[in-house]
Write a structure and sequence with these properties.
The protein is an alpha+beta fold and about 350 residues long. The protein has 8 helices and 18 strands. The protein has helices spanning about 60-65, 85-100, 110-120, 195-200, 205-210, 260-270, 280-290, 330-340; strands at about 5, 30-35, 40-50, 65-70, 70-75, 80-85, 135-140, 155-165, 175-180, 215-220, 230, 235-240, 245-250, 275-280, 295-300, 305-315, 315-320, 350-355. A hairpin with a 3-residue loop joins strand 12 and strand 13. The relative contact order is 0.14. It binds pyridoxal-5'-phosphate. Pyridoxal-5'-phosphate (PLP) binds near residues 256, 259 and 261.
Length: about 350
């Protein structure tokens, strides 16, 4: 796909203090845009100065939420190069999200190729400090300008880039989670497996309530029985059993199929652990935690990679997991996975894509 270049004449200063980057506050000089029109397909791929979008107030996405996104990172390697981690998986998922939302899928090759063109211009925005990265946010919105609910005949795809700080500024830190038993995030047959803003909108109130109660994340139960574990915040959830078994809820349509989740399952096996995808009843898991059969728990996602969980609040009771610290297997998975992503260790699975 041919990409037109309209480069900025006023380049911004790159952040001087990389310890203060945070997540998603700063954006680079340029963004990528591609339009879709029925009959014409995807067209007018272009790299333009980062700036506001101009949208008609009747624009479909603003009323009916037809929107999807992705999240991945560009890492600086010790050799002075740049790595992406399984980017094809992101564009494959983006196409599945588009299909579920009735949107025009972006061909995977076009997504990859145009992202490479954008990174070729912007890669020097990738920060240098340990654990930092350039966060990549592909997004698609429905842009027809009328209030009738129907599928849009036009879409806008864009990619913005944000230099982001180390998720763990001072090493992995365990968090407490709150089992939400009134609200649900997604239901069977709904849009839970799609990476779309609506799932986040459905989750914000419960997230606020959990924070007020002193917990970092919500542990979501399924939307039908409110009994089976689905996700934790916007991460997938894993439990480690005493027999060196890593168990995660099986994908059921309402769980987002995380690329970190898939990577942990494959890497876990490679490292000699047993891995299992199962329907996980919260009552059984709580009993297993209390009996000491569950020794570690953690969330997985691109932002944190691995987020250790050391306590869980369920039906008014707080239950500690393991010894309250960071589990040995949790730490190992984090170290190996980030080692691969940052190009510090070899890549036995062939997951890394080097920028040219
Ligand atoms: C993006 C996301 C994840 C994690 O997916 P990764 O591909 O590992 O980043 C998990 N749950 C939800 C709801 C998500 O949106």
């Amino acid at each position: 796909m041919n990409v037109q270049m309209n480069l900025s004449r006023n380049l911004k200063d790159k952040p001087a203090d990389e310890s203060k980057l945070g997540f998603g506050h700063i954006f680079t000089d340029h963004m990528l845009m591609i339009n879709y029109t029925d009959g014409k397909g995807w067209h007018d791929a272009r790299i333009v100065p980062y700036g506001n979008l101009s949208l008609d107030p009747a624009c479909q996405v603003l009323h009916y939420g037809q929107e999807i996104f992705e999240g991945l990172k560009c890492y600086r390697t010790p050799q002075g190069g740049f790595n992406l981690f399984r980017p094809r998986a992101n564009f494959e998922r983006f196409a599945r999200s588009a299909e579920r939302m009735g949107m025009a899928p972006l061909p995977v090759e076009d997504g990859l190729e145009t992202l490479m063109a954008l990174l070729d211009v912007e890669k020097e925005w990738t920060p240098h400090q340990e654990g930092t990265s350039l966060y990549i946010r592909p997004t698609m919105i429905a842009t027809d300008n009328h209030l009738g609910v129907s599928t849009s005949s036009t879409y806008l795809y864009y990619v913005i880039l944000s230099p982001s700080g180390a998720y763990y500024a001072s090493g992995l830190a365990p968090v407490g989670i709150y089992v939400e038993d009134s609200y649900v995030r997604a239901v069977r047959g709904g849009i839970g497996f799609a990476k779309t803003g609506g799932n986040y909108a459905a989750s914000i109130l419960a997230g606020m309530n959990a924070k007020h109660s002193g917990y970092a994340q919500v542990l979501w139960l399924d939307g039908v029985h409110q009994r089976y574990i689905e996700e934790v915040g916007a991460m997938n959830m894993m439990f480690v059993y005493e027999d060196r078994r890593i168990v995660t809820p099986v994908l059921n349509g309402s769980i987002l199929p995380g690329i970190t989740r898939d990577s942990v399952l494959k890497l876990g096996k490679h490292l000699g652990y047993e891995t299992e995808e199962a329907r996980m009843d919260i009552h059984d898991v709580i009993a297993d935690i209390k009996a000491g059969r569950v020794t570690e728990a953690f969330g997985t996602g691109t932002a944190a990679v691995v987020s250790p969980v050391n306590k869980i609040r369920f039906q008014g009771e707080e239950i500690g997991i393991g010894d309250g610290g960071i589990g040995h297997i949790t730490q190992q998975l984090y170290d190996v996975l980030t080692g691969i992503q940052f190009g510090k260790t070899d890549d036995p699975m062939g997951w890394v894509v080097h920028l040219k």
